[in-house]
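Example 3.2
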Amino acid sequence: QVQLVESGGGLVQAGGSLRLSCAASGRTFSNYIMGWFRQAPGKEREFLAAISWSGGGTDYADFVKGRFTISRDNAKNTVYLQMNSLKPDDTAVYYCAADISGSSLFQPARHPEGYDYWGQGTQVTVSS
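Structure, written as tokens:
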């Protein structure tokens, strides 16, 4: 069992920044692929970014490249999402997720079905 808890969401003006954190517990964390997703009202959950167990591999959705940065600190069992240049369209509930499949290759899933565990979400609201 893996427990994930997001934090760091809040209200920010357009052009501002937030850093989200996801704390993991319950099982070995360092070899998991970690991902970030978001879900706006009435929309499907969409992929944002993923990071390999080592932190050396990252994958981003095209619409966040250059604005969002994913990182992880395995010693702290925490993954981060730094979000810059935020737009009103970024308003959503943000979720972190863990893929525990343990593949030797970095093959991050871009669909929610590729992840095994999820946090409860943290609200990000970007005002114009």
